[in-house]
Each structure stands twice: as C-alpha cells, then as structure tokens.
Amino acid sequence: xxxxxxxxxxxxxxxxxxxxxxxxxxxxxxxxxxxxxxxxxxxxxxxxxxxxxxxxxxxxxxxxxxxxxxxxxxxxxxxxxxxxxxxxxxxxxxxxxxxxxxxxxxxxxxxxxxxxxxxxxxxxxxxxxxxxxxxxxxxxxxxxxxxxxxxxxxxxxxxxxxxxxxxxxxxxxxxxxxxxxxxxxxxxxxxxxxxxxxxxxxxxxxxxxxxxxxxxxxxxxxxxxxxxxxxxxxxxxxxxxxxxxxxxxxxxxxxxxxxxxxxxxxxxxxxxxxxxxxxxxxxxxxxxxxxxxxxxxxxxxxxxxxxxxxxxxxxxxxxxxxxxxxxxxxxxxxxxxxxxxxxxxxxxxxxxxxxxxxxxxxxxxxxxxxxxxxxxxxxxxxxxxxxxxxxxxxxxxxxxxxxxxxxxxxxxxxxxxxxxxxxxxxxxxxxxxxxxxxxxxxxxxxxxxxxxxxxxxxxxxxxxxxxxxxxxxxxxxxxxxxxxxxxxxxxxxxxxxxxxxxxxxxxxxxxxxxxxxxxxxxxxxxxxxxxxxxxxxxxxxxxxxxxxxxxxxxxxxxxxxxxxxxxxxxxxxxxxxxxxxxxxxxxxxxxxxxxxxxxxxxxxxxxxxxxxxxxxxxxxxxxxxxxxxxxxxxxxxxxxxxxxxxxxxxxxxxxxxxxxxxxxxxxxxxxxxxxxxxxxxxxxxxxxxxxxxxxxxxxxxxxxxxxxxxxxxxxxxxxxxxxxxxxxxxxxxxxxxxxxxxxxxxxxxxxxxxxxxxxxxxxxxxxxxxxxxxxxxxxxxxxxxxxxxxxxxxxxxxxxxxxxxxxxxxxxxxxxxxxxxxxxxxxxxxxxxxxxxxxxxxxxxxxxxxxxxxxxxxxxxxxxxxxxxxxxxxxxxxxxxxxxxxxxxxxxxxxxxxxxxxxxxxxxxxxxxxxxxxxxxxxxxxxxxxxxxxxxxxxxxxxxxxxxxxxxxxxxxxxxxxxxxxxxxxxxxxxxxxxxxxxxxxxxxxxxxxxxxxxxxxxxxxxxxxxxxxxxxxxxxxxxxxxxxxxxxxxxxxxxxxxxxxxxxxxxxxxxxxxxxxxxxxxxxxxxxxxxxxxxxxxxxxxxxxxxxxxxxxxxxxxxxxxxxxxxxxxxxxxxxxxxxxxxxxxxxxxx
Length: 1136
Fold this sequence. Notes:
- By secondary structure, this protein is α+β, with helices and mostly antiparallel strands.
- Among the domains are: 321-447 and 988-1122, Rossmann fold; 453-578 and 929-971, Hedgehog/Intein (Hint) domain (Endonuclease - Pi-scei, Chain A, domain 1, Beta Complex); 635-830, Endonuclease I-creI (Roll); 838-927, lambda repressor-like DNA-binding domains (434 Repressor (Amino-terminal Domain)).
- The protein contains 36 helices and 47 strands.
- It starts with a helix and ends with a helix.
- Residues 4-115, 446-451 and 971-979 have low confidence and may be disordered.
- Keywords: Autocatalytic cleavage, Protein splicing.
- It comes from Pyrococcus horikoshii (strain ATCC 700860 / DSM 12428 / JCM 9974 / NBRC 100139 / OT-3).
- This is DOD-type homing endonuclease domain-containing protein.
- GO terms for molecular function: ATP hydrolysis activity; DNA binding; endonuclease activity.
- Belongs to the GSP E family.
C-alpha cells in the first residue's frame, strides 16, 4: 500500500468530506453505496411463508405536501456542505423531549391478520404475542421498522463513520450496558449532524439499528435484550426464528434471515467476542456471551439447512427458591427438607444430584439449593459454561476451556474437578456432569457381587440351545482351573474370546437381544443361608439368592427388585419372543459310527461292497450292517422324520438296556403308522413286530445298530428311562424342533376341553419344551403337581391354552395322533376368544396415562379418538377413565400401543420432547418382547434339602441380564432404562462416565425435575421424584423414594418412606428424629415468612439465609417483629 493511500485511509470520514468541497452529499452517498449498482427486486412467490402470516409494518403515510426528512437527497444540484449540515433554528425550537425506542416501535395494527388472529395474548414494548388460526404455536411479533432508501443510505454512512471515529476500550468500560449507552450516545450525535432535519423519533430509530448491527447481534438483538425469553433459535435461511417465551413456551417470530451471510456475520461476531474459532474445519461453537447467556452455533456441513444459532438467555434477575415455591415446582415443606440436607447441620451435608431433561430447570434448582450453603464455607463451582449466580462471598468460579486453533490448551471438567480437590473446598458444585469427571467426583465423595442362581436353572443361549447354568459354569471352571480369581467368598473367571458365548437378553427398549457373556461366577452356599423360590402364574419357577435382582413392573416403571423383596402379586418380566436363533443343518458327528456295526456298505457302481468299520465311515458309505442284521441307513444330517421318531421314543418308548431293540406303545392307528413309516425309511425291507395289548399296540424294532445310532445321535438313555433331556441337535432349526415336539405330544400329550397338555416327570424337559414352544411363538405354562399314580413324586405339565396359542400349535406342530388332532380342531371350533391371555396384555396404572395426558393438555375424549385411530380398534373414554382412576389393572397391548402413538404424535406437534420420551416408553412396554407374569408364590428354601452346594451367575455385556427358567434376571451389572432416578444411576454407571457401582452409594439424594406443557397452565416445571440412594444389595443400587409428584394435586408429596439420610444425620449430630423434623419446620417457617413478605430477589433471599446462620435467635426475633399476620406471629413464637 502506498504512503498516499495509507494517509487517505487514516483520515476520518468527516476529513474526507471536508477535503472534497465540490462533492455533494448525493454524490457521497452514491460513492459509498457503489456507483451504478442496484438491488434487483425479488420475484414474488405463491408459497406460504412467515410473511403470509405475520405482517410487516408499513411506514406511515406522509401528510400531503410534506416532504420526507431526507427528500433533499433526491434533488439534483450541488448543495454546499455547510447548507446540508446547517441546523435550522426554527426546527430546533419545535423539538420535544426525546422519544424512547419502545414508543417508536409500538406494534402496529396489521390488516394482514384480519379474521386470522384468534387472540392477542400479550403486548409489551415493541412486541405482541398473538394466537393465529392455523398456527401450532403462538406468534412472537416484533415491530420491524421499514426504512426509506434515503434512510438506508444514511444508515450505512453513519455506520462507516462510527467504525472509524468511535473507539471504546472494553477494559476501561467492562459493563456491557454502559458501553452500549456510550456508543448509542455518540451514534445519535452523528445522525443528528448528518441529517439535522430528521425527526427525533427517526434519529432514535436509526441510532438503535446502527448500535444493534455494530455492537449487538443484528436482527437478533431485540430478542437477546428481551428478558421474557429463555431461548432464541435460528434454524437457517428463509425460515422463521423461534423463541422460547417464559410464559407462552415455544413461539414463532416474524424475523427471517434471507441470506446465510447475515447469520454467519452474527456467528463470527460471537466467536470473536469469546476468542473462539468456527469454520468448516471446526463447525461447532459452544460459548458464553458477555451477559452470561449460552450460545451454540453450527455451520454446514454439520447443519444441513445452513448455519444455526441457539442462545439460552441468561436471566439478569435469577429465580430463587421462593420463586420455585410460588411456581409450584416444589412446596415449602420439600424446600425446607432440602435445606436441611444441604446444610447438614454443620456435620454431614448431603451429596445431591439434580437430574432432568433439557430445559427442565436443573441449573435453576441447583442455584437455588446452593443458596442454603452456610456463609462460613468455601464454595468452588465448576461449569462448562458459567451460569450459576450465588450470593456467597467465599465463592471460586471455574470454567472449562476448549482447545485453541492448534488443538492444544484444553481444560476439561475432569481437569478442574481434580484441581479443585487440591484447593481445600468445603463444597464443590459441578454444573453439568457428562463424562469422566463423574468418576473423579464420586472418588472425592468416597474419600461385591452377590446375587446368584442355583445350579439347575436353565439358561437360554442365542444359538437355540438350553443349558443348566451349573453344568455350563463348572465345565468352564475345570478348563480355567489355573486362572480362577477370587473376591471374598466369590470365585470368577474372565473368559477368553474363544470361550465367550451369547445368551438371550433384553435391551432398554424391552426387545430381545443376544449378548456376550464375558465372565462366569460361583460361590458356595453360605452357612445358614436361605434361597428364595419364585413361582409365577404361568408356571415359571426360579430359585435365587435373596439379593439377586429380577425385573419387575411397578407403577408404569420397569425396576430391578431383589428376589427377597418380591411379594405375591408383583409382576416380573418373562421372555415372550426370544430372538430367532440361526437355522442350521443338524449335521451328525460321523465319529459316532465308529464300531457301531461290523461293516459300512459303500456303492461301487455295480452294487454295494462291505468295508470293515474301523472308525470314520468312508465318504460314500450309505448303510451300516453287521452279521445277521438288516442294513441301517447311515445318517449324515438329521431330518424331520428322524426328529419325530426321537420325540416318540423319548415320550412313550425306550431303548432296551442291552441296546438290542426299541419299543414304543401306541393307542392310535395313524400315530403308529407314522412311526412305522419312519422305521421303514431307515431300515429298508424291515417289518417291525406289532403286538396288540387290549386298546394298545406295542411296536418293537429289533435292530441293535439302529437303536445304538439313535442313542448316540439324540442322547437317548438305554433302559426304561427316568431322566432324559431334550437333544441339542433337534434345536438346530425350527423344523426339527416342530417334529420333535409333535412326537412328544403324540406320545405323552392329551387334549382336554380348553387346552393341550404334555406330561413329563422331568422338570428339565418341561422347561426346555416351554422354551422351544416360545421360540415358535407359542405361549405355554408349566405346572408342578404331585403324582397321583402308584409312584410317589412330582410330575410336570406343559399346558397350551388360549385360542391364539392353540391355533399356532395346530398350524406349527404336525401331530399324527388322529384323535388328539381331531379333539384339538374341535376345541378351536368351539372355544371363543375372551379377553386374551395375560401374556398378550400389559399391566397398567393411573400414573402411566393421566400425568402425560394432562402434560399435553388433552381431554379424555380427544385421547380416546386419537388412540382409537392409532390402535385400529375402539379405545373408549370409559376405559381411559377407569385406567386413570386405578380401576383397571390390565389392558390389551394393542390398546396401550394406540394410546402411546397418539400421545407421541401430540408431543411431537407441540415440540414437547420430555412428553414424547414418556409416550415412547409406553410404546416400548406395549411392543416389548417380555410379558409381565404375576408372582403367585415367594418362599424360602433350604439349599441343603435341595442338594444345592453352589450358586452361579454370569456377567453379560451391554444389557446386563439374561433369561433363567424363562424369567428375566439381572446379572447385577446394569439396569433397564427408565426416565427417572433410576435412569440417572444407569447414566452414571455407563460410558462415558463409568462410575463404579461400589462408589454410587456416596451419592445421597437424586432430585428429578421435568418440564410439562398443559393446556391450562402452559409450560410448567415440576420436581417429580426425590430419591435417596440407600446402598447396594447384591451390587444392586437401592433407591428410597421419599417424595413423588401427584398429578391430581399438582404437587410433590411425601411417600412416608423413612429417610436413611436423616438417620445418618441423627447419628452424627446426636439429635433425635423429632429434633430433626423440628429443624425442618424451622426452615419451612423462614421460607413461608419470605413468601409472605414478598422477598424473592437473589440478594434479598441470600441476606435472610445469611442472617439465619449468623444469629438464629436474633433472626427469629426479627421475624416476629416483622410478621404481617397473627398466624405468622404465632408460628414464629414456637421457635423463640
């Protein structure tokens, strides 16, 4: 750049004008705006936009004969500078008191909304909130002034001049409002100098616009300065800006950005202010504005529709605990209780976590509770973006720092938490816990695995097999005998990758999954220990340690409940639709044929030749044969016929103890023919021996080779069997399983008036058949009954009932027994569907529907219509009312699904994410792969009497549960997602926080807070749960719910559950429980007094709390003196 050019740039705008005597103002304006350039008019479009709904105020018409303030700019001719800048005395005399910007920008009465405006909700300053027909949310209408071309030119000139002439050092004037006031004053002077004929109102308007664009946030500046707004949301170009209004919730504004450049300019200005970088390489910005507001910005390609900005406003006058009580977020009783917990009476303050969704008011509650900290204590707060405002003197504020342009210099929350521990804090407040800092925090707070199953519990593997947990674990312990690790009296092994296996589990969405077992456990039964036997209505039964958790359904919530705490009537999760296992071929291990016969028969092109059986069969071998025996077909892959045969033999047949023959008894011709037909397929040209015995026929197959082959392939025991098992090979695919079950039911099943039943002496078989039927989508029950025959003992019945399941059985299981098949068809023809089996219904409670419906402002009639539409069936108003009043305990899954989908759609329409999540949970319950079986018996059993020596458990990755005897049990390492205090626990335990479970009891209290939207009250925030972490039982986190939200009362109420923390406080202070409740009442009185006196500002409330701590006796005397009611005076005297 030349020296001449540098001097020219250094000159001020006014110097340049004064040095150009021959230039007219018109020429100067043209020069500044670009000679010959024009702004093309935008073509009109027919598409509906915000402009079609929201009016743009038109400039007021000038009186006849009256020229525009800057009309002289349109005239030609060379007016001299001194004439232009001359200040007419006459006009000066007529000037009035300066007009405020709010008066200039008074909302106009727009004709555009004639016939559309339903209601004007509020008017203040230059803002009008209106309800418009056809709009889902209210309209936030900001009066946007229109400028003439002359005013736009003047605006640019003044802005350019201000850039050069106004220099304000931010350090010398740190106060943002003071800086703005000085800048506005200087800009106003410039406007008056350059356009002396301009009215005072227009001067004020132009000055304000210049300031907004230069040191404010452009079009967003009026929104940023509106203290009634909580959030400002820019979602792209040519789309309206949205705001969250403190009174009216989500609103649509009449502000639109027509170009990305406008949005980018604001984002870049914010980035410069906070010293951050945002570009395509770093398209995210998360920062704090000078006034404390949080801002998040995104750039393409992260945001697909253009740049976005979200500003969460910083309230200059923050809410206090008094405001929260007035807003009914909580009541004074709860606030006093929390005050005592925060105080800790100087010996044991509680560790408290506030949880909730976005916008639920967590920070406000945290800020309010922190005001209860005694003034003598040192407080250190750690925040990602500083939001807390505390009236505390000894307060150190720390804030994280992102990495610089080179990716260095980042200071994380975890870094600050670790550093804070070296700063001798009395209290640490962590603004938002999201990552590894959680573990550090719990480590600071903290300055075994016990639940198990007995060894005969059947575990369902993902490949379709069923195994006894004792057999499985013991086999692995033998293999890893040199790698056994111990913890107290527990033994466990970490499995290598090749030995890890998958089990059936259930995910947070209640859908069946397959997950890997990484560790197996065992321990000996302890001296004097009793186990718990749980029986359910559908016949499921499991024996566990007292502390082993199961999943139970309670008041619309899925909770973990220890076996010892279960009661008759509780509902526990039972697998209904397991994941479909892989359908594999049932390939026979050829080594079983070694020495099973004398020879193999192998084709040689002319016939068969004998090859001595010295081991594995030749590749082309087709038959097995011995001296004086019939050839038996060599089986390389089990088919349906052979599977059926195995079912018949295991059901009502046997292999002789010497292995020479097979025998089975038949009472039906078709059934017998099916059996004989299969024999003929595998032993060609052989006719079994059939002997009639009254009503029965006994078929004997005299083939030692065939009998031995079946014994080896299917594991059929020899002799008249007492114990047998379902062969693993028939579980290879569903077809084999169907034919095997058909053989069993043909042999040992019967059909009565309402059901089809299989009888067996083996509990193991009964449980596995239950599983197998479940795989086919058939729900059955297992019952244990005493044998009424000549032999003592128990027998087990597998029962299929209910029209739907009987029909599935008839379609899936190919019975050959003609009478049983005919009886089953008769039952299906005559039996009518009633309400459906309990497995196809879900438990329901008033808490599941009513609060959500009220939150969304729906009437019962509206919900009934919407739910009927989504369910595809009638969901009556009376049913909904019965549910909400607790008169109905179960409803059809389809009904709940319809209700859930209806509530989800409404929540989506009104933008209520919290409500949508709750409604989605209802849908998951309706569509889950588990059903909620009723507990009919809970009893203690003596493990010694049952011959139980060890108990076992598995560690399942991800879902942390598995199916045992059909019942879903936890491995004590995780929990099902729940939007409550329990969800907080799982979030703490899960990545990226990874807080070890053993540390979590250091947390004393979890406060849950949510945001509701109601038709009557609009958006409200409520505390819904105050839960106490009472400890670990079997490494399961135990919660005591001290307070719960009652929608009918719109209030959080005490549950009467005794508080563990108060007992601890009593121990540390030596005070009795009555004395502690006296302390709570004392604090409640202080809060009620402040409400009565109208004390609510943060400095005022803080001052009263400080006085309470410094001199409690004198403070209560002041309360008595200043009490405004007789009742308050009486209450105060009780504490003096």
